[in-house]
Amino acid sequence: MKKVLLAFDGTNYSKGAFTFARRLNQLEPLLLIGSFLPQIDISSSWSYNTGRFAATMPLQEEFSATVIEENIKLFESDCQRYGIEYRIHKSRYDMAIPELRKESRFADVLILGSESFYHQLGFETPNEYLRMMVQDSECPVIAVPENCPIPQNVVLAYDGSEDSVFAIKQFACLFPLLAKLETTLVYATEKKHVELPDKDLITELTARHFPRLTVRKLENTPKHHFSKLLGELRAPIMVTGSYGRSDLSMMFRRSFAAEIINEHKLPLFIAHRS
């Protein structure tokens, strides 16, 4: 049984995130932790000196404790309805994000209802917010759009980096049943005639965990080809390491990741090494 942390931003209840957690519970029973955060001004909470969230967070002036209590009751009702074992954690108003980080240390995966978080927190660049959440979390993160079908395909975003390989292994270990789905290992580069980095090693690894594996190399105009590839797949979930500096990572950070998050096309599994 896995321990899954499901974070709500206080006044907003993400049905999409809960539905995704419920479907994971159908695959394998889990312990679902509902973490209810007060509404905060995330744009002022990042500590540029330490590279992490500050110890205390400035709160938005208007905050509805009543709405949070209603959302907690809704969470309890949903968990009981679908037979999910659950716990409820509420963060202190002045320690919301640090407490979420500590919670993630004791969880297998953190699920964020991306649409609700970005809308309620009012962060101007959602991909930057996601980057901060991912880097501060001590477990893998899944950003989930509100209307998210159950995954039918897995896309492994491989750029040759240690983080991308780490993310692939984390996903395979956490979700062995999802790893049995049709899987595409994608290497994208703006260059031409470039070999897949460590081709033999990465194919040996992924073929063991993903029995229905296809390997694709996208050259020259990777964003166009990647968008086309995703359009051909039914209900994919994308697996990627934390943002780095390679061709694929830069592509995700500057364009494709922002498109995914802003338009909420598909769930995004992100993991990085501690």
From TrEMBL:
InterPro entries found in the cross-reference section: Universal_stress_UspA
SUPFAM superfamilies tied to this protein: Adenine nucleotide alpha hydrolases-like
Protein name per the record: Universal stress protein UspA
